[in-house]
From TrEMBL:
Any one GO biological process: double-strand break repair via nonhomologous end joining
The protein, known as: DNA polymerase
Organism, scientific name: Gracilariopsis chorda
Function in brief: DNA polymerase that functions in several pathways of DNA repair. Involved in base excision repair (BER) responsible for repair of lesions that give rise to abasic (AP) sites in DNA. Also contributes to DNA double-strand break repair by non-homologous end joining and homologous recombination. Has both template-dependent and template-independent (terminal transferase) DNA polymerase activities. Has also a 5'-deoxyribose-5-phosphate lyase (dRP lyase) activity.
EC number: 2.7.7.7
Amino acid sequence: MVVADTAMLSKYAHLCEVPVRPARWLTESVRDHRLKSPDLYRFCTPSAETCLRAPPSSSKRRYNYSEFRVEVNYDLKSQSAKRRKVVDYSLSSGSTASDQSDSIVKNLFPVLKISRPPSTVRHSEAVETVSSPSARPRRWACEIRPTMSDTDFPMNAKICELLGVVQEAYALKKDHFRTLGYQRAIAKIRSLPHEVLTIDDVRSLGGETSIGSRIERKITEIITTGRLLQAETVLNNSENVAVKTLCDVWGIGPVKAMGLVAEGITSIEQLRAAVRKNDSLLDLNQKIGLKHYEDLLHRIPREQVAELEYYVRRIVKRVDSSIDIKVAGSYLRGKKSCGDVDILVYGSSQKLKKAFPEITKRMKKDGVLTDDLVHGAGKYFGIFKFPGRRHGRIDLFAVPHEQYPYALLTYTGSAVFNSHQGLQKVCRTNYSRTRVEPPIRVRDEKEIFLLLDIPYVPPSARSIS
DNA sequence: CAGTAG
DNA sequence: GGGCCTTACTG
DNA sequence: GCCC
């Protein structure tokens, strides 16, 4: 049994053969001086197989408990080795009791010591472990739950929708941290395994809910009246509507849009007229966004994405046959049409360095890439067009093959699906062009889900809004 | 640096 | 009262 | 906004 924070997890998880629990579990257990429910923290499953097989909500997993003493030799908050605390716990067993576990704890996590409790503690007779003896325990757990689809719990969906309206309004006002607060609350509601029909359904959660008194009040209003006055005020505000309209232009964000609205520009037509008069009203990218405004409003039919995929692969193979591409995004999720096209270009980082710029160069020469928006070392955002077709948005990302599964998960989305803490965290720490440490090695996306101890969700099931 | 997007 | 915060690009 |  090992408890670790995120930094430890990413550093040592690939070496670890014993279950690891999130530090928050220990923090809160120590704080409240009682063992927190496994359900709230997603304890590790005993084996990879059960992890894959067990559906999220229906699994009434049996946890095996035995008694343990945990000595905490450091202050959980400051992470300094000052405080000393001894707490007796009932823990789920797994391979907890093993000497192997103890030695790993000593070697990797010297701040925590785990010992048998005093003999006065009565061992609840250990149930037989769920997994077969040969099954190897999985590595670590993470405090996230699979997301429920909106149709499962209509009231949860309603709450998220209305809180989302308010959140968006704060985002427009650049009130970043208030926005963050709403985002967290929404993510919480979205991840609940049950429907919120009374306010007690959120009050009884315990731990850090990200739902305080203010949002609790709003949730109550939604439950009782089916509406949220604040959200309706936002939606009826014409200035807000104008800002949102202008934000549909690629490159125009809340600040620019509000500036334009302040100048009396409230529609795309007015914006075009204003640009004709004053060329410096918009920057280069914003002008490209405005130029293709109508085309970019249209979604790209799936068949045309497939055509683009075929074309890009041919270019890539011609530049370097060891490199391949993968179209991620909504295309990979199987949608009939896509808002834009996300393409991962993956291979050895060495070869990508040379090949990536060459690839975009050739596509430009072909006239397929018509406008550049962002042209970085490892990423390209631009506009593409095939003869007789509309313009469309295309993103290309150069991905070293070690980071490929993380990048794939990241760009397959949907954004809401990715909005879970654990998913974000693990992808962020393992997919980044600037990362120094080698990533935790995984062969495919499924292994990332295993890492997080959540059931695998195929791309087609990730299109949640 | 601010603003923007994925 | 103060912290919370993804990263990398453009202008 | 939430949390400490």
